[in-house]
Amino acid sequence: MYKTIGTPPNTTHSRRKPTTEKLLLIGIGLLWASVYLMAVEFPERKDELYALHDAVPCQGPPQRPADCLWDEESIVSDVRL
């Protein structure tokens, strides 16, 4: 076959292979971490959300932590941007 002049034999021309492999491993690691966090954290957060939606309204302001939901109006003042 034809040989390219000035190219040593058994030389690869791609210098991107190690970088591509590193990026692929980082991507797989991030994917695994996100799947793991969804599998571990999502059920707990879902239960907390359902408990919040199922809570009954309080008759008055609670004096201690309670299993009821209390709405209070508040006013924000002295906000500087």
What can you see in these coordinates?
The protein is mainly alpha-helical. It has a domain at 17-56. Helix content is 47%, strand content 5%. It has one helix and two strands; from the N terminus they run H-E-E. The protein has one helix at residues 17-54, and strands at 56-57, 68-69. The chain has a two-stranded parallel ribbon. The longest helix has 38 residues, at 17-54. The protein is elongated, with a radius of gyration of 30 Å.
Which blocks of ≥5 consecutive residues have pLDDT under 50?
none
N-to-C terminal Cα separation, in Å?
A: 72 Å
Largest sheet: 2 strands, parallel
Strand content: under 5%
Average per-residue pLDDT, rounded, comes to 80
Q: Compute the CA-based radius of gyration.
A: 30 Å
Let me know the number of strands.
2
Structural class: mainly alpha
What are the defining features of this structure?
single chain; 81 residues; mainly alpha; two-stranded parallel ribbon; 1 helix; 47% helix
Task: Give a quick rundown of the structure.
This protein is mainly alpha-helical and 81 residues long. The chain is built from one helix and two strands. Strands 1-2 form a two-stranded parallel ribbon.
List the helices and strands and how they pair.
Elements: H1 17-54, E1 56-57, E2 68-69
Parallel strand pairs: 1-2
